[in-house]
Amino acid sequence: MQTRSQIFLENLISRRSIRDFSDKPIERKIIQNCIKTAGTAPSGANMQPWHFVLISDPDIKMQIRVAAEKEEKEFYEKRAPKEWLEALAPLGTDNNKPYLETAPYLIAIFMQRYGKLPDDREVKHYYGLESVGIATGMLITAIHNAGLASLTHTPSPMGFLNQILKRPKNERPFLLLVVGHPAESAAVPDIKRKDMSEIMTEF
């Protein structure tokens, strides 16, 4: 068990978010397996309040990029507080998101605020955000384990995803995940992870 945990740790230590993707194709079954893995996550009352939309269609990706960049431009130029912009500066991010079209896959993750019973009655989903957050973490891990890279993208607001992807009103966009191979020129910021003493307390 200790050996397995160490091997898994060493694998995950190498995971990094990237912003420069290759357009190299990926077998769809690989991504489907990763999404199935996310679907094994625990959830409040086993409601499984998530829905994943797998996007590879170039026209849909273009629509998402246009809408996302519109919101991002508003964020960077008007809505973002100075402190937030200063925190983002070392990462080199801005409102240009070419990877939304370049990467072979986008996965839009939605949280279902309520579900529908067979008789069409609504049933509230409890701990939806927590459940979808856990599933998303497992999805990111599965993607890395498959040898792929990903990027979490959260333009705010994200209501345009419901419109473009024709999702029902009981679903709220949670996160947009970009998936693919890194471009040959891809680079990542020299950032450090917190030391164990900073993230864990023992009694």
Q: How would you characterize this protein structure?
A:
This protein is of the alpha+beta class and 203 residues long. Helix content is 41%, strand content 17%. It contains 8 helices and 6 strands. It has helices at residues 2-13, 28-38, 58-79, 82-88, 99-102, 128-145, 160-165, 196-199, and strands spanning 50-55, 105-112, 114-116, 122-124, 149-153, 171-180. The strands form 2 sheets. Strands 1-2-6-5 form a 4-stranded antiparallel sheet. Strands 3-4 form a two-stranded antiparallel ribbon. A hairpin with a 5-residue loop joins strand 3 (114-116) and strand 4. Helix 2 runs antiparallel to helix 6. The two termini are 23 Å apart.
What topology does this entry show?
Blueprint: H1 2-13, H2 28-38, E1 50-55, H3 58-79, H4 82-88, H5 99-102, E2 105-112, E3 114-116, E4 122-124, H6 128-145, E5 149-153, H7 160-165, E6 171-180, H8 196-199
Antiparallel strand pairs: 1-2, 2-6, 3-4, 5-6
Helix pairs in contact: 2-6
**Poorly predicted residue ranges:** none
Strand order of the largest sheet: 1-2-6-5
Percent range of helical residues: 40-55%
User: Span between N and C termini?
Assistant: 23 Å
Q: Characterize the largest beta sheet: strand count, sense, and whether it forms a barrel.
A: 4 strands, antiparallel
Order of helices and strands: HHEHHHEEEHEHEH
- What's the total number of strands? 6
Q: What average pLDDT do the residues reach? A: 92
Cα-based radius of gyration, to the nearest Å: 18 Å
Percent of sequence in beta strands = 15-25%
The helix/strand class is alpha+beta
Shape call: globular
Number of helical runs? 8
